[in-house]
Predict the 3D structure of the following.
Amino acid sequence: MKRKQQLSLAIAGLIFLTACNLATATPTPQADLSSPTVPTQTPPEPATATQTLTPAPTFTPTPYPRNFTEEFSSNLNAWELFQTGGSNSPTVKTENSMFRIDIASPHTWYYAIQTTHEYSSVAISAKVDGSPSGSIGLVCFYNESNGWYEFNIASDKTFSVLLGQWLAEGVAQYTPLITDTTGALESGNLNYEIGLVCRKESLLLYINGNPFGEVDVSKYGLAAGKIGITASSFDELPTTAFFDWVKVSEK
C-alpha cells in the first residue's frame, strides 16, 4: 500500500513539472497570412546620359569664282553702284533675273562694278537691251586711283571706247580713245550681246560674238583692275537699260 502511494506521488510530480514547462515555453510566432508582406526593392539610380550635340552646319556664301556668269537672280552685294554727272539719281533694281537701270536726268553715267576680283587679262560679255536713247557698255581694269576703260554702244549706231578717271568724288573725266559707227549696230536698237577683251596693250570689241574693232591702249598704263557694266543718258529722256546676264572669263 505504501509503495502504491509513492508511485502515485511520483507520477503526479512528473505531470506537474511537465505542465510548468509548457506554461513557460515561448510560442513560435506564426506568419500572418491575412496581410502578406511584399518584399521592397530600391530601384537603381537612373543613369545620366551624356549627349553630344553635333552643331548645325554653317553655310558661308560661296564667293564668286574668277570665271563666272552673273544672271542677277539674287542680291547685288558683290557689286558697287555709283553715278557720275546728272542731277538725279537713277533707279536701279533686279527684276525677272535682269538688272534694270532707269535714268531720268540727262548726261548721267551709272556704273555697277564687280568687287570680288581684279584681272590683268579678261573677257567680258553681256546680253543687253534698252530704250532707243542713251548708251550701254562694259568696263574693265577699273581702279579708283588709275582709272578704267569702258566700251559703249548707242542707239544711233555709234560706239565708243573711253578712258575714265576720277577728278573728285562723283566727278569723272572721260578721254575718248575711239568714237565711230559700225554696220554691226542698227538705229534705234540696243538689243545685243556685247563683248570686250582687255589686255595691257589692247582692247578687242565684239557685237553678237563677232569681233569688229581693236584699240591700242599701251600708252595709257592701265595694267589690271575690276570689271563692271555701265549705262548713260543723252539729251533724250528717259533712258532705260537692261542687263540679262554678264559673263566674265580670265584670259
In short: The helical segments are 2-24. Residues 146 and 165 are 7 Å apart (CA to CA). DSSP finds one helix and 15 strands in the chain. The chain has one domain: 68-250.
